[in-house]
Amino acid sequence: MRILIIGCGSIGSVLAKAVHDMPEVDRIYVTDQSKDFAVHLISSLHKAQYIDNVNGKLAKVLGEIDLAVEAASQDAARKFIPFALENGVDVMVMSVGVFADEAFRTRCYDLAKKHRSRIYVPSGAACGTDGLHAASAAAISEVHLITKKGPKGLKGAPGLAMRGIDVDALTEATVVFEGNARDAANQFPKNLNVAATISLLGVGFEQTRVTIVCDPSTERNAHTLIVRGEFGELRCETNNVPSPMTPSTSYLAALSAVSAIKRILGNVWIGV
Fold first, then answer.
1. Which of 47, 110, 207, 229 has the smallest count of CB within 10 Å of its CB?
2. 203 inside domain
3. Strands 209-214 and 2-6
4. pLDDT tens digits along 47-56
5. Are residues 39 and 114 both part of a single domain?
6. What is the pLDDT of residues 206-265, one digit of tens each?
């Protein structure tokens, strides 16, 4: 398999190093806005090669790619996902919040169907997505995601500026957002990809409730998923270690991408 990794930040870096050691992976291409950063990342990875998007170089390489992994941002997802799909390349999307835009999501789904490509969305930073997926085969009455992060993990989010909240001034745990998953994904684009994933698996963006809490006493990224329906009730709590490179991103999110690629490469899928 040949893999293209778009973005060499916290997730892309973990992923590049992990897939490099997979014998099924023959070649890794990486691209990033910072060439120096990308080249430094792959300096010890002999299977990896940096490629930029100048003069259509990326388009030329797509013919050799089996899987393109977006691990950069919603802006990058908007640019590269349709481009890969219309070239018949499977894609893995980490900036899942981009799919809160229904028109964009529909376009990508249609391109995947037309060109026989696949779209993969890993479970990300929250546990319980398998149970939610199973529960969605019957009626679901409630899906509620409660996310708690420290100031470093939320700083810079547009949703905070909209409400005039200075997270550095908080002295106790404070609810900084309460609403649906669509608004959460749009207002906290670097924090709530998990809300988008849960929405796609369950009852949709409008019906999925999200509560975001900023707690100055914690350095962890915690998610509590509550689901109620005909199956019964599910409550799953995840207390994540944040990435040292990007506090808003949980290490588990990167591991979920590694795990997803292992499943794609294998012939046995357990827990689907």
1. 110
2. yes
3. unpaired
4. 999 998 766 7
5. yes
6. 999 999 999 999 989 999 999 999 999 999 999 999 887 888 889 999 999 999 999 999
The answer to which of 37-41, 120-124, 135-139 has the lowest mean pLDDT is 37-41
- 223 assigned to active site: yes
Q: How are beta strands 67-70 and 48-50 bridged, if at all? A: unpaired
- pLDDT for the residue 246: 84
The total number of structural domains that make up the chain: 2
pLDDT of residue 56: 72
Domain that holds residue 47: 2-124+253-265
Q: Is residue 136 located within the same domain as residue 222?
A: yes
**Distance between CA atoms of residues 17 and 234, nearest Å:** 35
Task: Determine how β-strand 2-6 pairs with β-strand 67-70.
Answer: parallel
- Please report whether residue 50 resides in a domain: yes
Residues 168 and 241 in one domain: yes
- Quickly list DSSP for 112-125: HHHHT--EE---TT
pLDDT for 55 equals 61
Pair of tokens at residue 38? 């990308």
Q: Are 101 and 145 part of one and the same domain?
A: no
Q: Which residue is catalytic, options 46, 115, 133, 223?
A: 223
- 12 vs 190, more confident: 12
